[in-house]
Design brief:
With about 350 residues, this protein is of the alpha+beta class. The protein is built from twelve helices and ten strands. Helix 7 packs antiparallel against helix 8 and helix 10 packs antiparallel against helix 11. The structure holds adenosine-5'-diphosphate, 2-acetamido-2-deoxy-1-O-phosphono-alpha-D-glucopyranose and magnesium ion. Magnesium ion binds next to loops.
Length: about 350
């Protein structure tokens, strides 16, 4: 049992503590008490989130805001206070812990049916729509320049120059692929700076496993993992879901022959997201395929950067894990390029069908 749970005002006495979920960043446990109550206990990753207290201010402000807007109380995270009234506990080693209610739902690593994926689109689209009027100035930037793709290239080129693990030589092909796309990587950012795309309050980590589905109805229940809610582009939220959920293979599939974009799932997600987020502008809608393509490229760059730097950021299960992940992302980008006309046509068709 993790001792930290004792500092939170939970119902009953904790009797079970299990490592839980497949997040790449935090340390997540599921706690059960003798009254049958279930909670999530998390240790915040301080290597990634340098200022956990500001992070918890963001997460509690956003959850509070959402709680007033959802019809089902299970649809907004419910954090449990610790001794002292704060929503975190700092232990003697300086580690930060938090606890929230585990509601009767489940998360998927891959959609079992297109309906599951559609539901995740509804969850994230609705999340975006609800945060339309969230006061962005209240938010701390929990990871500065998180989805600044141009800056991700700067960090990548730094890692390449330093080549601290002597790995660059073995990934020349991947480096070539990334560098050939440096110009287009900044496309959405340039549009944002030119005022052509709105800056919104976005989730910034919209993987399928960051959505909870209802165990009984399999409908979208709650958006999880609010650590990266910050001002950003809705296109990246949409794109990150496509990258993870509309791929024909897992994010770390070693057999690249299996990796590609499933256009049926692409259409499914696009329909759900556009339906749930009607405030999207014409420019946002037109650029949706670019959101998918650029965020996938960005993550390929991030995984490869971490590989070059000796795997310091993402949790890995084996030595080449980040390289495998980088390769799947780059393969997915290549497949999107091949299917580009179809992706653009799908977005146009969905937009038209929703206008009717
Ligand atoms: P990380 O930043 O490490 O991804 P998350 O907050 O996303 O941390 O939690 C990790 C995983 O734990 C999620 O992807 C999800 O599968 C699972 N999880 C977290 N909270 C819940 C919950 N309330 N109910 C069910 N599963 C959860
Ligand atoms: C991380 O925390 P998790 O596992 O939901 C990462 C995302 C990546 C994702 C790739 C804070 O997400 O940006 O897209 O891994 N989160 C952070 O799987 O860096
Ligand atoms: Mg997560």
């Amino acid at each position: 049992m993790q001792k930290a749970i004792n500092y939170f005002h939970v119902e009953g006495t904790p009797v079970e503590c299990k490592v839980f979920g497949h997040g790449h960043i935090n340390y997540t446990y599921k706690i059960t008490t003798d009254t049958g109550h279930e909670y999530i206990l998390q240790r915040i990753n301080k290597n990634v989130f340098k200022d956990p207290e500001s992070l918890m201010e963001n997460v509690s402000a956003v959850s509070e805001f959402l709680r007033k807007r959802v019809s089902d109380p299970r649809s907004a995270l419910h954090f449990i206070p610790a001794d002292g009234g704060k929503f975190y506990h700092k232990d003697s080693r300086g580690e930060y812990w938090r606890v929230y209610e585990f509601v009767g739902g489940f998360c998927l690593e891959a959609a079992e049916t297109p309906e599951d994926f559609y539901e995740s689109a509804i969850a994230f689209g609705h999340f975006q729509e609800m945060l339309r009027d969230f006061p962005a100035e209240k938010l701390h930037e929990t990871i500065p320049e998180f989805h600044n793709t141009v800056n991700r290239y700067v960090l990548f080129e730094d890692a390449l120059e330093q080549d601290m693990c002597n790995r660059a030589k073995s990934v020349e092909q991947e480096i070539g692929f990334i560098m050939a796309r440096k110009g287009e990587a900044g496309l959405l950012q340039r549009m944002r700076e030119a005022g052509e795309l709105p800056l919104r309050v976005t989730h910034n980590d919209t993987k399928l496993n960051n959505v909870l589905l209802d165990s009984d109805t399999r409908k979208a229940l709650c958006v999880l993992d609010l650590d990266t809610v910050m001002p950003g582009l809705s296109l990246y939220d949409y794109g990150d879901s496509i990258r993870f959920g509309a791929s024909t293979a897992a994010e770390d599939e070693p057999d690249l022959g299996k990796v590609g974009i499933d256009l049926d799932l692409y259409r499914t997600y696009t329909e759900g997201y556009m339906r749930a987020c009607p405030s999207m502008t014409e420019a946002e809608i037109r650029m949706l395929p670019w959101g998918a393509r650029i965020i996938t490229l960005e993550l390929g760059v991030r995984f490869l950067t971490d590989y070059l730097e000796g795997d310091q950021y993402f949790k890995t299960a084996y030595p080449e894990h980040n390289l495998v992940r980088a390769r799947t992302q780059l393969r997915l980008v290549a497949d999107m390029e091949d299917k580009w006309d179809e992706m653009e046509a799908i977005v146009r068709e969905v937009a038209q069908s929703l206008q009717q």
